[in-house]
Amino acid sequence: MSKALQMTSKGALGCLVKDIDLAQVSDEQLQQLKAAFAEHEVLFFENQSMAPEAHLAFASRWGDININRFFTHVEGYPAIAQVVKEPQQQGNIGGYWHTDHSYDQVPALGSMLLARQVPPTGGDTLFASCTKAFASLSTGMQQMLLSLRAVHSSRHVFGEQAPYMGEMKGRLGNSDAAKQDAVHPVIITHPESGRKALYVNPGFTLHFEGWTTEESKPLLDYLYAHAVQLEHTTRFQWAPGSIAFWDNRCTWHYALNDYHGTRREMHRITIEGSPIS
After folding, report:
1. Which residue among 55, 100, 152, 249 is the active-site one?
2. How far apart are CA 41 and CA 43, in angstroms?
3. Strands ordered across the beta sheet of 233-236
4. pLDDT, position 2
5. Model pLDDT for residues 218-259, shown as the tens digit of each residue
6. CA distance 182 to 154
7. What Cα–Cα distance (Å) separates residue 169 from each residue in 97, 175, 254?
8. Residue 68 and residue 177 in contact, taking contact as beta carbons nearer than 8 Å
9. Catalytic residue at 181?
10. Would you call 61 a catalytic residue per the annotation?
11. pLDDT bucket at 134, cuts 50 / 70 / 90
12. Tens-digit pLDDT profile for residues 163-195
């Protein structure tokens, strides 16, 4: 029988799981991790110098792997997206609040990011809890939001005319695949925890269903500002071999771009989800 894993809470969301080798996780440990994932929404690990095969093997124990259609992949591993910023590049990937794949009809369960090379300082990632953001809204606001749905899209970020794609040339591609939109409830019920979560985000949400963009903007802006209050967020400092595994259904993240002139390389595996409601 495996001993209980050592976990340390990281603030509003997330916990650091200590003294574990993710290349050799037992079935019992995996169940502990799944329970912690549902409770804490982000799992952090240290000193995981995993080969790509081990990274993929661990991720696949959580579900099917999503082959990202926009990111450049790690050579020889199409299921591992390469998230890199070279010293001469100014823009970084993910340098804004968002949740991955909300533009898909069936959004991803989560993303597992492994640090291969990090700058000496900077390059932290911020995370926000959308369950805490919902819980701290007034009852009246909660009830109103429960009646709404929102339109999400990848067109304005990954499409052919998107300024972001021009800046990320060589790191992102396949713009002609950015043709899909999706409509999701503004408030979803998390399938594992049962908690309600705010499901809109600044990166990919366009407007409320049946509302114009102009009508939607004031309320969306309010929700965005509310969600990233300090009491809803945490900050993770990377080291080589660190992993952050976040739940895309109930969190946002923001990759800070404060390490110009140095290199940062991360390997991301995204795990397929199930329909949300």
Report:
1. 100
2. 7
3. 233-236, 125-129, 251-255
4. 61
5. 999 999 999 999 999 999 999 999 999 999 999 999 999 999
6. 9
7. 21, 11, 20
8. no
9. no
10. no
11. very high
12. 776 777 778 776 776 678 999 999 999 999 999
Catalytic residue among 98, 171, 184, 195: 98
* 268 a catalytic residue: yes
Q: Give Rg (Cα) of the chain.
A: 18
Catalytic residue list contains 260: no
Smallest CA-to-CA distance from 46 within 12, 11, 74, 10 is with 10
Rounded Cα distance, 55 and 21, in Å: 11
Q: Given the residues 40, 55, 101, 253, select the one marked as catalytic.
A: 253
In terms of Cα–Cα distance, which of 240, 90, 237, 51 is closest to 169?
90
Catalytic residue among 101, 171, 249, 268: 268
Closest CA to 129 of 157, 99, 95: 99
